[in-house]
Amino acid sequence: MLKKKYIVGLLCLAWVTAILLPAPVEAASSITVGSLTSDAVIWRHIAKSPQAKKAGLKIKVREVSDPVGLNTATARGEIDVNAFQSVSYLKAYNHENKGKAQLAMLGTTYLEPMGIYSKKLKSLKQLKDSATVALANNPANTSRGLALLKTAGLIKLKANFNANSDETAISQNPHHLKFKEIDDNTGPRVLGDVDIALISNSVALAGHLNVLKDSLFHEKVNQSTKQDINVIATSTKNKHQAEYKKLVKLYHDPTIQKWIDHKFAGTKVEVQKPLSYLTK
Fold this sequence. Notes:
six-stranded mixed beta sheet; 280 residues; single chain; 10 helices; signal; D-Maltodextrin-Binding Protein, domain 2; Lipoprotein_NlpA; lipoprotein; Metal ABC transporter substrate-binding protein
């Protein structure tokens, strides 16, 4: 009888203890985000934010300088997710790496407008025939620059123009523009040597240029620029990971967006669209 009372007492104690003790806190999921330059700044801020903690995400940011290497590491699953590139850049990477590990998009982040800059002109109306145009030499930004020149009314492009096209896709060049290929990161430094230069906003920011204020012409968020929207990407084998998809929602948190807008003077234009928008 005494033994029974002892057992009952232990059971009651265990029951009371279970009620009084707080429920175990679920450990935050750890995700490594690979990024470059200004995007790495954003993700370091997000990683430390109360919003990330609330979402149950522990974010580790790995900043790299080689975008191709970062995509390769992400496609292989060596880095969980990356955030730095446009849709067209991702497609160009997959195209150039057919038969190898591929990338998949998780969600949209922003449009970082490419701009046309000049130290010699105050308006594109001043552009003379046979002017020299600096154009980035990587496939994604080459085609993007050509598309921007078309939107500005300076050239026309062939019907089969795509994210991997180069100057051979120009169908009409009425101003006889001469193209000078440059390394992506040298745009601001060559402005004194060319008439106009097409410069991505991340490079422009590093060169103390604001695309909204300093460019002669720049991209807008519309159907013509949807391939230039930046995305969060992962390997195709991990594209259904629920924890990775949480990063997209976290990026678009209003408090985080307010910080980004202030930090980058409005040059990272938020785009919150479903992935289906990019394929329409």
